[in-house]
């Protein structure tokens, strides 16, 4: 299934696996970089072999990232939490855990299992390779010492092993929302017995670490050498990007918690638009625009046929039709069918509805009860509720 933000590639243990479009960029960059590295280490390899090995290593690396996120998701499920999907994107992966953990212990277990999975994978890859590489730091710093003369599969495994271990250690950095930051939050939560306060403190630490990364990356770009990160413009630029992402993610995570608190216990029924304006499937686009769109602030209309809802037509659907075709094109011809729409029930929690709006990147959701349209929940209805109930937005 395609969307503006990416596409779905499958399902594991009932959890949808999605790929953001930005992942394709990082897949190419990792493959391109590895083909250069493998070419330097194995000058006798042809282009097809080094590019093929590099592509295989990149895919297995992201499979490892997926395993890392899957471990978070399965542990969250074990703690009674719902996980709808996992998305791979530019900076790795993220599990869509739809509620915050019920206890500090649950938070600790969900956070720690990810790095542990990466460590186990790293060790397994190294052991399976059958090569004694010595200290991991030495192998990463000068891989030519252990890789020269090895075959493609062994080379691939020896790259995957240390990289997974590095991923595990990186995620333990105490910068929220990294796993290490979540471990810190679980401790603060246990001490204060206040999740909001613990999240605020953890996000402050995360933002502080993010700014250190940004400043460190800038210094690297101008020639400074940092322990572990090294030096150079490209390495420094990546560190700046990671710091910038972490800074934004830390602030957003705190905002999301505040929003969840405001919407806690609120049903869709309380904020949906009841008896929304509807159109017949036979209505022409010209009549739809002039009789329903002009003079209103409505962006979407449920489409009715024989007294039942059959789909939804939006302004985006109308804009895709040439003006000269408005008289000959009906709402039913351009609507999104009901079977392809994400819907909610009036008794569903507003938090769940907001998750659906965000995941599908849509502005509204039809509210259905017993196969009957009872309302329309719009993103702006939720925003208006938040403005009334709190100072979150």
Descriptive notes:
- It is a single chain.
- The protein has a 5-stranded mixed beta sheet. The protein has a 4-stranded mixed beta sheet with strand order 7-8-9-10. A 3-stranded antiparallel beta sheet has the order 6-12-11.
- The mean pLDDT is 85.
- The protein is 56% helix and 15% strand.
- By secondary structure, the protein is an alpha+beta fold.
- It is globular.
Secondary structure elements and pairings:
Blueprint: E1 2-3, E2 6-12, E3 15-20, H1 21-41, H2 47-78, E4 83-89, E5 92-97, H3 104-129, H4 136-141, H5 144-147, H6 152-171, H7 179-192, H8 195-221, H9 233-263, E6 273-274, E7 279-280, H10 285-293, E8 300-305, E9 308-314, H11 315-319, H12 331-334, E10 336-337, H13 350-360, E11 364-369, E12 372-378, H14 379-389
Parallel strand pairs: 3-4, 7-8
Antiparallel strand pairs: 1-2, 2-3, 4-5, 6-12, 8-9, 9-10, 11-12
